[in-house]
């Protein structure tokens, strides 16, 4: 079989070699001509998979190494008998760790303790539920909003949106939808931010258009928001210059970019492709994930406050401020090069491993600190 794949899907050539000859190309080269005689097409979110791309092709299976599928014309694939798989939840832990790093960085910058602060999580699926567990491990008060899950489960833990407006943090983890009772396009609009208590923080690591950029900037300018963390942007890769400056942390849509999450996404579509064609999978994630460069961290529980120690430990694995710095450099390059800069930051993103790959060793016992570090994902 002939396989055309986005070159930024990690280990795609090695992994899919058991199914056929794989040609990895830049996303911009995935065209109708390029896929015409392919049997399998493997993409990321930057490639629109629709009739225009596939109508003259021999593609029998499409895999998207992404947690969403807004870029896929599902109806066209189904109508034409093309198999499809994506990777929901593959990067959930990566995004949740990004949120933890952001919470700790913002708390350090603004000089407050996260303990007893409240966090409202809008969208309690794969990602939101992990954010909830990690925030609870930091002794934060967690409030959840997820109307579809509330209707499905009738669980009272899923609260009306209005009950989250008094939170110290609100973080978005919804898909992007444009119609229906659960439409999320510009869910965070001017009325949304006006309803916040003064001095709250807003985090968006979901989809850019879930938040109205102008409304978000206005809320920061006015002082209604004490700050914001923005990983996803409207009109990517042409992102808003003012919002880059006004946010506490501005990052280039990389919350889900841990190597562990990327490899998990590759494996999910690989296993689905094997099943589609009735071929047994040859590889597992262990065949591709390298050993951690930081397998162990030694901690002295008396070296600082618990939050400072947790912050510094997380920084040894993931320096979120570095992603913020690199994103802000967009502003010093010529305007016509800024979109490419944003895309390059994503395409050339350095290896980031998840907390689970690191064992914490204490110089003396500390049950509460061990519990918190284990709760956010470390082995402790």
Instruction: Kindly provide the radius of gyration, computed on alpha-carbon positions and rounded to a whole number of angstroms.
Output: 21 Å
In the CATH scheme, what's the topology name of the largest domain? Rossmann fold
> Secondary-structure element sequence?
EHEHEHEHEHEHEHEHEHEHEHEHHHEH
- Uncertain runs: none
Q: Can you give the mean pLDDT?
A: 97
Give the helix proportion (percent range): 25-40%
Please give the count of helices.
Answer: 15
Q: Tell me, what is the CATH class of the largest domain?
A: Alpha Beta
Secondary structure category = alpha/beta
Overall tally of domains: 2
Largest sheet features = 6 strands, parallel
Description:
The protein is of the alpha/beta class. The chain has 2 domains: 2-86 and 261-287, Rossmann fold (3-Layer(aba) Sandwich); 92-250, NAD(P)-binding Rossmann-like Domain (Rossmann fold), CATH 3.40.50. The chain contains 15 helices and 13 strands. It has helices at residues 12-15, 32-35, 51-54, 74-79, 92-110, 126-137, 147-153, 190-194, 213-221, 241-246, 259-277, 306-317, 320-328, 338-347, 367-375, and strands at residues 2-6, 21-25, 40-43, 61-64, 83-85, 118-122, 141-145, 169-172, 200-204, 225-230, 249-250, 296-299, 359-362. The strands form 3 sheets. A 6-stranded parallel β-sheet has the order 7-6-8-9-10-11. A 5-stranded parallel β-sheet has the order 2-1-3-4-5. Helix 5 (92-110) crosses helix 6 (126-137), helix 5 crosses helix 12 (306-317) and helix 6 packs antiparallel against helix 15 (367-375). The chain is globular and about 60 Å long.
